[in-house]
Every structure is written in C-alpha cells, then in structure tokens.
Amino acid sequence: MKPEIITGAEITIRSLQEENVEFVFGYPGGAVLNIYDAIHQQTVFKHVLVRHEQAAVHAADAFSRATGRVGVALVTSGPGATNAVTGIATAHMDSIPIVIISGQVPTHAIGSDAFQECDTVGITRPCVKHNFLVKDVNKIASTIKKAFFIASTGRPGPVLVDIPKDITTETAEFIYPKTIDMRSYNPVVKGHSGQISKAIDLLINAKKPMVYSGGGAVLGDAAKSLTKLVKKLDLPITNTLMGLGGFPASDQNFLGMLGMHGTYQANMAMQECDVLLAVGARFDDRVISNPEHFLKNPKKIIHVDIDPASISKRVKIDIPIVGDVDLVLIDLLKAYQEVEKNHNKKLISPWMEKIKDWSDTDCMAYKDDGSVIKPQLVVQKLHEVTKGDAFITSDVGQHQMWAAQYYPFDKPRRWINSGGLGTMGVGLPYAMGCQLAFPESQVACVTGEASIQMCIQELSTCKQYNLPIKIITLNNRYMGMVRQWQEFFYGNRYAESYVDALPDFIKLAESYGHVGMKIEKSSDVEGALKEAFSPKLKERLVFMDFITDQTENVFPMIPSGKGLSEMILAKDE
Amino acid sequence: MRHIISLLMENESGALSRVSGLFSARGYNIESLNVAPTEDETLSRMTIVTSGSNEVIEQIIKQLNKLIDVVKVLDLNDGRHIERELMIVKVKATNKYRDEVKRISDTFGGRIIEIAETTFTIELTGPSSELDGYLDSLDKAAIIETVRTGALGIGRGDRILKI
Ligand SMILES: Cc1ncc(C[n+]2csc(CCOP(=O)(O)OP(=O)(O)O)c2C)c(N)n1
Predict the structure, then answer these.
(1) Which CATH class is domain B2-79?
(2) B66 and A309: CB-CB below 8 Å?
(3) What is the span of the domain harbouring residue A450?
(4) Residue A307 backbone dihedrals phi, psi, to 5 degrees
(5) Are A144 and A238 in a shared domain?
(6) ipTM beyond 0.90?
(7) Mapping DSSP to helix (H, G, I), strand (E, B) and coil, where does residue A22 land?
(8) What pTM was computed for the model?
C-alpha cells in the first residue's frame, strides 16, 4: 500500500477521528487556521463553535462527565490557551478525561515573544494530568494517541497537546498507533487480593459500618457494583457532592450527601462509624472537614482508589486497596460470597436504630409560608416535573447545594457540577455538553444570577445548535453563598456580595432568540416548570428567572475547620 | 527527617520543571536537586534532597511516581546507601593562613586545584555534612565563594535504581 502522506493539520484531524471523537468544542485563531481548514474538509466529527474558550473546555468536560468518553477542545495560541485555563483546571480538580489541542506559534518563533505567543505548556503544567509540545510532524499522531490514553486511564484527567503552526503545514506519513506502551506510566487496575479479604472481614464484623463513595465511583463506572455490594451487605451509605448518583438516592440505605452541607444523619454516621469503606473519594476538606476531629471516634478505614497518592493523604488509611474501583468492588463481592454464611446482619441493628434517630431530625425541612419562592421548592418541583431523570448541571453557590440536596439522583453521570475547583460559570456550558451528547434528554442548569453571567455569552451557541436547555435561575439578588458566610462569620457585613444592575433576563434570553420566563410567586413555580418542559417548548431553550427568598441559607452547615458532627442546623437559626 | 530521593525520568524537555513545579506547588522542601544524563541516553537521573515527616515523604514519593515522565523512584533512606557531594571553594589564602588552609584541606581530604597569589581553590567530595564541617573549620571571613553540586546518592550492594 502506498504510504499516506498528509499535512500535520490533517494528521491532527485524522487522529481525532481514529479516537472516534464525536464533538470538538473550539474557537479558531491564527495558530490553528490550518487545523480549522482541515476540519472544514471533513464530516466525521462535528465542530461546535463556542463564544469563549473557557466554555469550549467546560462543554468538552461535561460531554465527558455525562458519557464517560474523552471530551475534546480546540483553541488557538496565546489568549485562546489562557482563556482555556479555567476550564482545564476545573476538569483537573474533578479528574475528568479531556484532551485539549492548542495552537502554538511556529517552532522557530517560540521564545521570541511572538504575536499571540505564550508558554502554554508552562502555564497549564500544574493543572493538567500531562501535556505535550509537539515539535515534529512525525510525532503528532503518536502524541495524540498518548494524550487520549493518559487522559482516560488510571486516575483520569485533562491532557493538553500544544501544536506549533509550522508543523501543521509540514507533511508526514499518517500512521495511527494501535496500541501504546509507556514504561513510565502503568496504572494499577487490579486490587490486592489479600487486602480485599481483610476488608470484607472488617466489614462483616463491624458494629457500626459505613460506606462513603465519591466521584471516583461515578467516573469509574462502578455504580452498579457499588449498589450491589451495599445492598448485599445491607450497609448505610453516603455520597460526596461528586459521588451523587453513584448509589440510588431513593434507596433506603442512602443517608444523603455528606460534608459541609451534608445531611445530619450522613455526617453523624460518618463521624461515629467504626469501620468505613471509602470508594473513589479523597477525604477532602469540604467532606470530612477537620481530620483530627474526624478521627476522634476511632475507626478502621478501608480506602479503594485508583490513585495511590490519594491514599493516606489527609487521613491515615488502615486497608488501602489501589485499583480500578469497579474491579475492586466486584472482587469484594466475590470475597463476600465466600464468607456470607458467617455474616450476622443483626450485629448492626443498634447502629441502624441510631441512624434512624438521626434521620428523624429531618434536617432538610425548611419553612415555607408561600409568601416568597423558596429556592428549595423550585428544585423539588424540578425533580417532580422531570421525574428525577434529567441531567442537572449547576454553577457554584447556594443554588448548587440546593440542587445537590433536593434533587435526588438515582443514576450516575446525571449530576454535573464543579466540585473541586468550584468554578462559577460552568453551568451553561456544562448543559451544552450534556445536551449535545443526549439530544433527546432533558437538561436543566440550576444556577444563580451571579454565576450565569460568567458564561452568559453561550446563549448564542445554544441558539446556533438548537440546544433546548432549561435554565433555572434561583435569583436572590445576592452572591448568596458569599452572603451566607458574611452573615455567619462576618457580622452581617455584606461586602460586595450584592448583585446589582441585573439585566432583564427575559429580554436578554429573547434577544438571543430564546424563551424567557419570570416567576415571582410561589404558587406559579410548578406551573411554570411544567410549561417549560412541555412538548410546546421541547425544542426551545427556556430561561427561567425565579425571584427567590433573598436571605435563605443552606443548611446543615459545618463551619470550616469544625468537625463533622458540629453542624449548624436550620432549626438552630 | 532528611531524605535523599533518586529517580529516573524520561529525557524529555520540561521534565525537570514538572518535578520542581510539583515541589513548589505542594509546598515540599527542596534542599538540593541535581539532574544529569545516565548511561541510557533516553533517561536522566535526578537526586533530590528533601526533608519532612514520614507522611510528607510518603506523599512526595507517591506524587513523584504519579508524574507521567517519571519512570522509577527510590528513597535511598529506605536502605543502606552512599552519599557524596562535590564542592569547590575559593578561599583567601595569604601569609600564614596559606598553611592553615592547606592543613585543614588535607584533614578533610580536599585537593587544592588552583593556587593564585592570594587565593586557593579547593575541591572536596564527601557526604554533605562533611562538606559543612570543612566550611565550619575555615575562617568564615576567608571564604570567598563556594559552589556545591547537591548530594548524589547510590544504594549499597544490590540496591539498584535501573529499569
Ligand atoms: C469564578 C469564581 N469566582 C468567585 C467564586 C466565589 N463564589 C462562590 S459562590 C459565589 C456566589 C455565587 O452567587 P450566585 O451565582 O448568585 O449563586 P447563589 O449562591 O446566590 O445561589 C461566589 C462569588 C467562585 N466560586 N468562582
């Protein structure tokens, strides 16, 4: 066969095709003109033109969160790359596999402060899993192969490939490697069998066992085996913010989310358990709060994680099991079956009684006299109207916590939010990524009037690609979460946390060609949501501006630095 | 505690900054850092001297292993090892102090590699603490310039860092 000699730009595109990429989210510019020209001449994947590079990366990130596949973004050099950084760091903190292709000035100009030059590899180094500067056209294909491999294996994460313009015009033979072997990168997949039987032994002999699962269980597609194991052993379980949907929220074993705004029962059980099984979670500060306080109640901890560096990072682990969480859970199930006959489930009855008492405090109750729209009510109604089966994206703030608390997720990959970096502005681009991946599904973005303005320009993208997203703005005229902290810890001094000079969101939505709705009465909430999700508006983006209670707070709340059991509850207010 | 960590990494551009960036981003100490090629031209060997509690050192090793370009990491302090550092010192050496410097250098096994009118340049190898001891023995005011490689280390016997 004749060797296929093509340009570096074509090699880039062909490599993406070889990876079965469906969407590339991007924005053109000088350094990527050759790549764009090659995109123009192909029909295999679709390019989605965003309005800001940050949104390109967020959308690629959400595509990955929703589908489990690698998301792809394409940006130009200099400002294109720097605009992408927030998106990259966001994906990095939540371990999302994406590949970012960035243009770079020609190799001979690198280091000369050329027009639109920046050290993209240097700038992104601390917020990627890995990055590459490709300096040889013969290495484009193998580098892209490596990028997808690294992004999607082990603990996933973003990988950036920086490609100078000159090598996109040079030519080389196109050979896409079938496999890749890197001596410096071999993630462990199988858990240690000795550790696995020790773990089961601990779990079946525990008097106060508890399971805590995080984003790793969702990203590792381990929800099924996690559910099976937990049901089989009949254990109480909580999820982190990132782990929601990893175990069905409607199941009776589920205690709700834990952490800073977790439920009373989840946090208390986490604090007082004697054996803890942690699955794909990392004991971070927003989850277990103060590690010393957490360990005041002695407990044995089993930690299943793909990343050895996550083990014993904040809390000393007794039984580490490094491996692919799904495979480890399957092995745990197998190991359990061998000893099942010795398992006396009655052993934990007093513990389950105790948990029931904690649950009876009904920590999620909120006062609603119908005079103003309660933000919690909007989320609850959204859950009803969408039958609990929508993709829910969120921004960052109180609305994010209310979405997590009042929209119970029964399936993984339905709850899409920035947990690690906490990036305001992700909500709308996240919804775009989900809607493109699942055109027939309902996608709602629960946001705040401050957050939505951080990527509001994407309303234009939504129009261009007919994305019928429903934007649920909980408009409290405050940066609510900031205001809440100021109320609690800064003597009600609301320094710069107001949101003034708001646009008329209805007109704004309409000017972008969408439908706008303003909802001011509690009694209108349900009707408005039903209308927005009705067949009549099925094809339309609806921007819903809910004018909500200005001073509502998120409860329970653990003040930072305090212990898990030191929650402030709504009733204490 | 002070640890000497040796690692082999792919000889790729930017590999060094990934390691140094890791230390600064996570707030780990670096006492010294040395990189040079190995007999295998695709690999460089880096020696990092750092200090921290056992937990911190454990995290450092794990985080280093996590870097994609890092092939293998060895904490030399996990076993018996040999440590050496090279130092070159320029000292003021006039009149009777010339003999004094020579005597101290001989005691520490140093070699005078340049004799100038008013200065000596001395080369000295040994564990880092020995080099510190040498400097302490000299009159502080006489030391004009020092240059050190940072510690290098190698495992004893069959403790080998190779792929
Ligand atoms: C990019 C960015 N800047 C600042 C913050 C800090 N921050 C966290 S929540 C918040 C307020 C969000 O306000 P809004 O979107 O109206 O949501 P609310 O809390 O009122 O529901 C701010 C400013 C952030 N998370 N991200």
Answers:
(1) alpha beta
(2) yes
(3) 375-554
(4) -105, 110
(5) no
(6) yes
(7) coil
(8) 0.97
Question: How many separate domains does chain A show?
Answer: 3
The CATH superfamily of B82-152 is: ACT-like. Chain A, domain 2 (3.30.70.1150)
Q: Where are the alpha helices (DSSP H) in A346-479?
A: 349-359, 375-385, 398-406, 427-437, 458-464
Q: Which of A301, A131, A92, A118 is nearest to A202 (CA)?
A: A301
Mean pLDDT for A333-356 is: 97
Q: Are residues A394 and A534 in the same domain?
A: yes
CA distance B31 to chain A (A): 21
CATH number of the domain enclosing A259: 3.40.50.1220
Specify burial of residue B1 (Cβ count, 10 A radius: 0-12, 13-18, 19+): exposed
Chain A interface disruption, residue of B22, B23, B59, B68, most A CBs within 10 A: B68
Token reading at A228: 């099976």
Q: Do residue A333 and residue A382 come from a single domain? A: no
pLDDT at B96: 87
Give strand pairing partners of A101: A74, A161
d(C-alpha A270, C-alpha A236), whole Å: 10
The domain ranges of chain B are: 2-79, 82-152
Residue A571 has pLDDT above 90, yes or no: no
Q: Which of A145, A184, A305, A316 to mutate to test the interface with B (most CBs of B within 10 A)?
A: A184
A140 in any annotated domain? yes
Cα distances (Å, whole numbers) of residue A515 to A485, A533, A539: 34, 12, 11
Contact B150, B127 (CB under 8 A): no
Total residue count of chain A as it appears in this document: 573
A272: amino acid identity, one letter: E
Residue type, A73: A
Atom of ligand 1 at shortest range from CA of A479: 13
Separation CA A88–CA A485 (nearest Å) = 28
- Give every CB contact of residue A537 below 8 A, 6+ residues apart in sequence: A468, A515, A531
In terms of residues, how long is chain B? 163
What are the pLDDT digits (tens) for B90-140? 999 998 899 999 999 999 999 999 999 999 999 999 999 999 999 999 999
Quick: pLDDT tens for A113-147: 999 999 999 999 999 999 999 999 999 999 999 99
Inspect the interface and report whether the beta carbons of A185 and B65 lie closer than 8 Å.
no
| pLDDT tens digits, A510-543 | 999 999 999 999 999 999 999 999 999 999 999 9
